[in-house]
Protein 1
Amino acid sequence: MSMNSKTAIVTGITGQDGAYLTQLLLEKGYKVFGTYRRTSSVNFWRLEEVGALGHANLELVEHDLTDLGASIRLMEEAQPDEVYNLAAQSFVGVSFNQPITTAEITGLGAVNLLEAIRIVNPKIRFYQASTSEMFGEVQQIPQTEVTPFYPRSPYGVAKLYAHWMTINYRESYGIFGTSGILFNHESPLRGKEFVTRKITDAAARISLGMQPVLELGNLDAKRDWGFAKEYVEGMWRMLQVDTPDTFVLATNRTETVRDFVSLAFKAVDIQLDWQGNAETEHGIDSRTGKTLVQVNPRFYRPAEVDLLIGNPEKATQVLGWKPQTTLEQLCQLMVEADLQRVQTGKSF
Ligand code: NDP
Ligand code: GDR
C-alpha cells in the first residue's frame, strides 16, 4: 500500500540532487516521473547508488528541457501534483564558453515548464532550483531572500531569469511557483568537475599513489557548503506549505577552497603546508616536502564570486529545515566514498 498517492516530475534525475530527491520521494510513497535527456550512453549510476533504479514507482522519461512541446506532453502524460525543476547546464565555468546553451537550458528551460503548467494544469506545484550564484558580487552578508542580486556568470544570469519568471508566474497566474535559493551542496554523488569532488577524488588518488598532483584555480573563493541529501528535503518541504515563496537553504558558515583542500588531505592523514601566493601557491606534504597541490590559471574564471554565506533562518522558521552535517563530516564522507571507489576501480 502506498503511503501517499502524489505524483511528481523530477527533471535532471541523472544529476546529484535528482538522485537524492527521487530517493526521498519514493520513500514517501510518491510516483516519480524522472526525466533525462538522450545521450549515447546511459547515465543512471547515481540512481543506482541510491537504490532507486528499477523501483516500481519510478518511471524514466526522455525529455529535453529546451522543448516546449515535449514539456506540455510531459505534464499531460504524468498529470503530476508537483514538478521539481532540477535540470540545468549547472557548471558555472562552462557557462562562460556556452552562454547561449546555458541561457536556453538553465533560463528558458524553466519557462517551458512554467508554460506547460499554465497550459495543462495551473494547479501543479512548481519548484525552481535557484542558486546563491545569483548573489554574485557581494552586496551584503550573510545573504538572505531579500539580498540584492548581482550575478557574475552567464549561469548566474540565466538562473536569475528563471527565478524571476517563477515569481512572475506566481504573481500573474496564481501558479504555485516556489524558488529555493540553494547555496553549494555537495555529496559523494557530486560530479567530479565541481571543486569539492575534484578535491576529494584527488586526495583519495594521491594518498594511494595513483595521481601525482592536484591542479586547481582560485583557492581564495569562499563558499557555504552543505550536504545535498539534507537540501533535497528542504526542496520537498517548500512544496508542502500553503503558499508559494522563496527560501534560502545554507549552513551560514563559509570557508575557502584552500580550507576544503586541507580538510580533504587531513582525511587521508596528509598535513599540507601552503607556500607561495596566487599563481605560485602550492600545498606541500609536511612529511615528505612533495608538492601535492598547485595552482593552474586554466581553472580561473573570467569573473569570480568571491564570497558566499547564506542565512537559512526563514527556512528554519517556516519549514523547520536546518542543516545537520558539518563541513568536516561532509568532507570526511566524500573522501571515504572516493577512497572506496578508487580501490574498487569505479570511475564515477
Ligand atoms: P547536476 O549538474 O548534477 O545535474 C544537472 C542535471 O540537469 C543532470 O541530470 C543533467 O543531465 C540535466 N540536464 C542538463 N541539460 C539538460 C537538458 N537540456 N535537458 C534536460 N536535462 C538536462 O546538478 P545538481 O544536481 O548539483 O543541481 C540540481 C539543480 O540545482 C541544477 O539546476 C543546479 O543548477 C541547481 N543548483 C545546484 C546547487 C548545488 O550546489 N549542487 C546549488 C544551487 C542550485 P545529464 O546527466 O545528461 O548531464
Ligand atoms: P560553483 O561550484 O561555481 O560555486 O557552482 P564549483 O565547485 O565549480 O566552484 C566553487 C569555487 O571553487 C573555485 N575553484 C574551482 N572550481 C572548479 N570547478 N574547479 C577547480 O579546479 C577550481 N579551483 C578553484 C571556483 O572558481 C569557485 O569559486 C556550484 C554549482 O553546483 C552551481 O550549479 C550552483 O548553482 C552553485 O554551486 C551554488
Protein 2
Amino acid sequence: GATIGILGGGQLGRMMALAAAQLGYCAHVYAPEPRAESVAAQVSAAYTQGTYDDEAALAAFAAQVAVVTYEFENVAAAPLAAILPHAALFPPARALEVAQDRVNEKSFVETLGGRPAPWMQVDGAEDLARAVATIGAPGILKTRRDGYDGKGQWRIMTPADAAGLDLPAVPLIYEGFVEFFGEFSVILVRAQDGSVQFWDSARNEHEDGILARSTVPAPAEIAAQVPAARALAKQVAAALDYVGVLTLEFFATQDGPVFNEMAPRVHNSGHWSIEGAIASQFENHVRAILGLPLGSTELVTQGAVMDNLIGEAADAWPQLLADPANHLHLYGKAETRPGRKMGHVTRLVQ
Ligand code: ATP
Ligand code: MG
Ligand code: MG
C-alpha cells in the first residue's frame, strides 16, 4: 500500500499509524525528536527527524508519501506550504492556524455564532489588570499557543492574584471562569466530499487540567446540549474546508454549551472509539485523508468508559491486564513522569 505522512511523533500518531497498518498503509513520521524517542516511530516504517520549519526537509518528506496529516497542532502553518507541491495536507493548514492560537479559535468560533467564555487578549500586566477588572475573577490566564494538558495556565481567584503574577513574555489570554456542570467533546470526521459523521459525545472529567476519564454515552443533561454543539462543529468544519477528524471541547452550563477549544485532530476523549465504535476516530481519519469511504461511527455496545493512565498509574498495568474485560493500551514511553499520559484503558458497557 501507499504511505501516509504524519507530522508529530506522539501517541496520537502511533494510534494513527496502527489504524493505517490495518488498512494496508505504511506510516512515515516526521518529528523533531530523535527516532528512539518517538512512540509513533515504534510502529511506523519510516522516520524523518526534522524541525517543523525546515521547508527543504518537509518537501523531501512529502515527496515520499501519498498524503500528509498531523497529530500535533503546535506546528507553524506557513512552512507547511512546502508540502503542497508534493502531497496533499489534510486537515488544511488554515485549520492549524485557527486552532493553535486561543485568540484565533475563539474569534473564529464567534463569527460562526458560537459562544466561548468571556475573554480578552493579554500582552502585559496592564492588559491583565484591565481584563480582570472587565471580565471579573475568578478566571484563567492562558498562553495563547503551545498549551496542552493544562500547561501554561494560571488560575486567578482575585485581582490581587493577577497583580502578584510574574507574567511570561508570550502572548496570553484571560478567560472568565465558566460555571459548568459537566464537560463534553464533539468529535466529527469530514470526508473529501464534505459529508460529516459524528461519534457519540463523551462526558469528559479532568483532574489537574488533564483528561482523566471519558464516558459514552454522556448523561442526559449533557446529551441535551450535544445537538447545538454539533451544529457549531459542523459549521467550523465546513468553513475550514476540513478533511479528517476534528474535535471541539465544550462546557455544559445552565445556559447551554459554551465552547472551550478545538483540536484539528484525533482527540484523547475519542480513544474509546478504538473498541467502542464500528470505525474508530483513527481509522476514519486515515480513510478521510486518503479519500476512502468512511466507516460507521456507531457504538458497538451500550457504551464505553476510557480511563487515562497518567504517570505512575500506568505501573498498575499487570493488574489492569488481569481483568479480561479491559482493553489496555500502553504507548511505549520509556520514561514515566508525573502528569505524562502513558496509556489508557477502555471498558465496554454491554
Ligand atoms: P488539552 O489537553 O485539552 O488541549 P489545554 O491545556 O488546552 O488542554 P484547556 O482545555 O483550556 O487546556 O483547559 C483544561 C481544563 O481546565 C478544561 O477542560 C476545564 O476543565 C478547565 N478550564 C479551562 N478553561 C476554563 C474556563 N474558562 N472555565 C472553567 N474551567 C476551565
Ligand atoms: Mg488544548
Ligand atoms: Mg482542552
